């Protein structure tokens, strides 16, 4: 009887022994995507970070932070317009992206426009236009070719970047800021993760950010929401505009319709969707690196290469 029990016990152990020697099962691929890698600003070697005052208001001093190459020559320029729901200042979060773009052959700049908590629309767009005029006024000092300037921005900054680019040549959008003897035109624009039709996106609901930014609901001031929507100003002659979006972000209302209008006019446009990317994808890797690659190709096509001495 004891022998029979020993045999049965041994037989029971065999599967466990084989299991112990077996290779571990391969892990199933995750659908969550890569882990965020936080980025912090660090002025790259060969560049000097300069601060310029654009305009001084009681509520805020609008400034430009410009990465200027130490080498001699003339560079195309990219202006960044930060996000933050029009209510938060996120210049620092955009600096790593602009530092990398500077290393790709551009003078890069960031503008600290007036927030909705400081001044209502159109203060923000006025400041963006004034920043472009300021860059041109200081072009020699900043080593900028004033004929080769583009803009980009994400989220609320994407809205402002689109509006800045699409209203190139419209005098009613120049605002009351300084450097009126200079142009605020851009040759190309990039919009990241931003709604383009503020009428459609606000109709039937109340957005606290929009009310704070515009100073009223769409029912109260519909004409302001319409005028502030980039899609409203699509027309012949506007600069090429591309869109970059995150796969994990929400639908950006008006982007597809705006692209259709641009394409119908023969104006270059494209949308790039970054896999696994969340809403503020340009602030962290691996998506910041992907964004810089896309932006480099696009801006080199439309703004060109630096002219070194």
List the helices and strands and how they pair.
Layout: H1 2-21, E1 37-38, E2 47-56, E3 61-69, E4 73-81, H2 91-103, E5 107-111, H3 123-137, H4 139-142, E6 144-154, H5 156-166, E7 189-192, H6 198-202, H7 208-214, H8 222-227, E8 241-246, H9 255-264, E9 269-274, E10 284-285, H10 287-303, E11 307-308
Parallel strand pairs: 4-5, 4-6, 6-7, 7-8, 8-9
Antiparallel strand pairs: 1-10, 2-3, 3-5, 4-11
Helix pairs in contact: 2-10, 3-5
Q: Can you walk me through this structure?
A:
43% of the residues are buried. Helix content is 35%, strand content 21%. The protein has one domain (42-303): Rossmann fold (3-Layer(aba) Sandwich). The strands form two sheets. Strands 2, 3, 4, 5, 6, 7, 8, 9 and 11 form a nine-stranded mixed beta sheet that branches. A two-stranded antiparallel ribbon has the order 1-10. The protein starts with a helix and ends with a strand. The chain contains ten helices and eleven strands. It has 309 residues and is of the alpha/beta class. The protein has helices at residues 2-21, 91-103, 123-137, 139-142, 156-166, 198-202, 208-214, 222-227, 255-264, 287-303; strands at 37-38, 47-56, 61-69, 73-81, 107-111, 144-154, 189-192, 241-246, 269-274, 284-285, 307-308.
């Amino acid at each position: 009887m004891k022998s029979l029990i020993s045999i049965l016990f041994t037989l029971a152990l065999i599967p466990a022994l084989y299991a112990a020697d077996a290779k571990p099962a391969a892990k199933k691929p995750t659908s969550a995507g890569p882990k965020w890698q936080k980025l912090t600003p660090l002025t790259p070697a060969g560049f000097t970070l300069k601060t310029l005052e654009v305009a001084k208001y009681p509520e805020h001093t609008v400034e430009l932070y410009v990465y200027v190459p130490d080498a001699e020559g003339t560079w195309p320029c990219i202006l960044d317009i930060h996000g933050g729901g029009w209510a938060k200042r996120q210049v620092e979060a955009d600096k790593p992206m602009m530092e990398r773009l500077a290393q790709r052959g551009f003078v890069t700049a960031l503008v600290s426009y007036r927030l909705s908590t400081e001044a209502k629309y159109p203060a923000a767009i006025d400041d963006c236009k004034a920043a472009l005029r300021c860059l041109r006024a200081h072009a020699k000092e900043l080593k900028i070719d004033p004929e080769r300037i583009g803009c980009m921005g994400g989220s609320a900054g994407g809205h402002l970047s689109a509006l800045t680019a699409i209203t190139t040549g419209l005098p009613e959008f120049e605002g009351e800021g300084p450097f009126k003897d200079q142009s605020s035109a851009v040759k190309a624009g990039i919009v990241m993760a931003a709604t383009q039709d503020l009428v459609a996106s606000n109709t039937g609901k109340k957005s606290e950010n929009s009310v704070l930014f515009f100073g009223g609901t769409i029912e109260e001031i519909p004409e302001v929401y319409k005028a502030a929507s980039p899609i409203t100003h699509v027309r012949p002659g506007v600069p090429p505009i591309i869109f970059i979006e995150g796969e994990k972000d929400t639908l950006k209302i008006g982007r597809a319709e705006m692209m259709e209008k641009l394409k119908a006019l023969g104006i270059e446009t494209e949308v790039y969707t970054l896999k696994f990317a969340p809403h503020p994808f340009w602030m962290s890797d691996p998506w910041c690196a992907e964004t810089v690659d896309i932006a480099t190709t696009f801006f080199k096509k439309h703004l060109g290469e630096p002219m070194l001495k």
